[in-house]
């Protein structure tokens, strides 16, 4: 059984037991969260749209952290104009507990 969930403008394919890093959620570590279900499949049938409205995916928050730093370097050729920045995107790690129809 798997489901397609939506969070932060992105869609993720999840199964029970998966650990997923999603956009930062406003939840404490150990809290239960639920996601908007776009599609759900139980191996024989696929439910989409209005049929998937009754389905739910619950997950447990495992960590609030930041990704590895990336370097953003902007410059203009022949102008001696340079700007170097670092960025660490925050994320929430969640473990998918249950997919229910």
Characteristics:
101 residues; mainly beta; seven-stranded antiparallel beta sheet; two-stranded antiparallel sheet; 9 strands; 0% helix
Share of helix, binned:
under 10%
Number of strands: 9
Report the radius of gyration as a whole number of Å: 19 Å
Which class of secondary structure composition applies to the elements?
mainly beta
What amount of the residues lies in strands?
over 45%
Largest sheet: 7 strands, antiparallel
Number of helices: 0
Total domain modules: 1
Summarize the helix and strand pattern as letters: EEEEEEEEE
Ends: how far apart? 10 Å
Low-confidence stretches: none
Shape: elongated
Mean pLDDT score: 93
How does this model look, in words?
By secondary structure, the chain is mostly beta strands. 0% of the residues lie in helices and 64% in strands. The chain is built from no helices and nine strands. The strands form two sheets. Strands 1, 2, 3, 4, 5, 6 and 9 form a seven-stranded antiparallel beta sheet that branches. A hairpin with a 4-residue loop joins β7 and β8 (81-87).
Structural topology:
Layout: E1 2-7, E2 10-14, E3 19-23, E4 32-41, E5 46-48, E6 56-66, E7 70-76, E8 81-87, E9 90-100
Antiparallel strand pairs: 1-2, 1-4, 3-9, 4-5, 4-6, 6-9, 7-8
